């Protein structure tokens, strides 16, 4: 009828085109972002549930985009993974974090640790990157166990032998390893035994329903008991309420992070917080 032929998609095409252009725009901008120093790292305290002290933090990446504002990892990491820039970005994050943890070992606590996230793609691509990290740690004179590498369970399934070998290399370097988002996807308690790790991080989806779902509470308790038997420490993620915190303390959980304590914050703010005493 009226909108025949080329016109019949006139509603859809501009939107799809805009979306595609936006994606291409982000992918292009990403290439320059490191050189332009547009990435920032925010730090979220990891609180000891037994003592209330903060001697650990997780490093979380942000991109201060010149026109789009402050972007979270979900808005750009997928692009960085598909074009391979994740390797360069991950390398930058590692070096920044190594310098930061060294400063905080001097000013906050000598055994301060920072966790960094490593995407599955990065895990597969940068076969020898850990060697340059080792050089960098030596250059700084920083013990490797100052840094914890966080990997998700999914990684363990994609090419397991390769991944086990990489984990072995990390541990041989002295880096520590945390299993992130535990309880989601293909998770199984047997992984805790099979893989060479130091920390288990209980996914925030379980923590969110702790108060209302006795099944989730039982699951958290089982993870904690099993992890402790295997000599691992447990971190609960996404703790937002005092009730959740109390249940985790009772369950014997070692560490927690979440909005009930503090949101991720710039390094300077973190230092001020540490100087004023840990969030309780
Ligand atoms: P993740 O490793 O599971 O990180 C935890 C996420 O939960 C963070 O989101 C954090 O800001 C958020 N969070 C912390 N406390 C709470 C809480 O109490 N409630 C709720 N609802 N959320 C909370 P963020 O910073 O947006 O990071 C999202 C994901 O992006 C991370 O999930 C991680 O997988 C990835 N990511 C972050 N930084 C990096 C990086 O440097 N490299 C790579 N490859 N991935 C990164
Ligand atoms: Ca993480
Ligand atoms: Ca997580
Ligand atoms: Ca996650």
Provide keyphrases for this structure:
12 helices, disordered N terminus, 8-stranded mixed barrel, binds calcium ion, binds ligand C2E, 280 residues, single chain, alpha/beta
Bound molecules: ligand C2E, calcium ion
Pattern of helices and strands? HEEEHHEHHEHHEHEHHEHEH
Q: Give the termini distance in whole angstroms.
A: 67 Å
**Mean of the pLDDT scores?**
88
Oligomer: single chain
Helix content: 40-55%
Q: Low-confidence spans: pLDDT under 50, at least 5 residues?
A: 1-6
Instruction: Determine the structural class based on helices, strands and strand pairing.
Output: alpha/beta
Query: What general outline do the C-alpha atoms trace?
Result: globular
User: So how many helices?
Assistant: 12
Describe the structure in your own words.
This is EAL domain-containing protein. It comes from Massilia rubra. This protein is α/β, with parallel strands linked by helices and 280 residues long. It is 48% helix and 19% strand. The chain contains twelve helices and nine strands. The chain has an eight-stranded mixed beta barrel with strand order 1-2-4-5-6-7-8-9, surrounded by four helices. Strand 2 and strand 3 form a beta hairpin. The longest helix has 22 residues. The chain is globular. The N and C termini lie far apart (67 Å). The structure holds ligand C2E and calcium ion (3 copies). One calcium ion (CA) binds next to strand 6.
């Amino acid at each position: 009828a009226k909108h025949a032929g080329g016109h019949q998609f006139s509603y859809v095409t501009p939107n799809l085109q805009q979306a595609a252009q936006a994606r291409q725009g982000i992918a292009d901008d990403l290439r320059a972002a490191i050189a332009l120093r547009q990435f920032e790292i925010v730090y979220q305290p990891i609180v000891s549930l037994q003592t209330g002290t903060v001697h650990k933090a997780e490093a979380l990446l942000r991109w201060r985009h010149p026109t789009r504002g402050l972007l979270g990892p979900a808005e750009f990491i997928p692009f960085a993974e598909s074009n391979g820039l994740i390797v360069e970005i991950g390398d930058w994050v590692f070096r920044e974090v190594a310098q930061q943890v060294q400063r905080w070992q001097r000013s906050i606590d000598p055994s301060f640790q920072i966790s960094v996230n490593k995407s599955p793609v990065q895990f597969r691509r940068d076969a020898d990157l850990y060697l340059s990290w080792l050089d960098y740690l030596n250059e700084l004179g920083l013990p490797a166990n100052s840094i914890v590498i966080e990997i998700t369970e999914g990684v363990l399934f994609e090419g397991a032998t390769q991944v086990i070998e990489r984990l072995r290399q990390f541990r041989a370097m002295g880096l520590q390893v945390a299993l992130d988002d535990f309880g989601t996807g293909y998770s199984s308690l047997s992984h805790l035994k099979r893989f060479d790790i130091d920390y288990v991080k209980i996914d925030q989806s379980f923590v969110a329903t702790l108060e209302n779902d006795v099944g989730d509470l039982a699951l958290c308790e089982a993870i904690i008991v099993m992890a402790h038997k295997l000599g691992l420490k447990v971190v609960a993620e996404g703790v937002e309420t005092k009730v959740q915190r109390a249940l985790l303390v009772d369950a014997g959980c070692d560490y927690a992070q979440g909005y009930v304590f503090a949101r991720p914050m710039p390094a300077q703010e973190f230092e001020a917080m540490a100087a004023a005493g840990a969030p309780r």
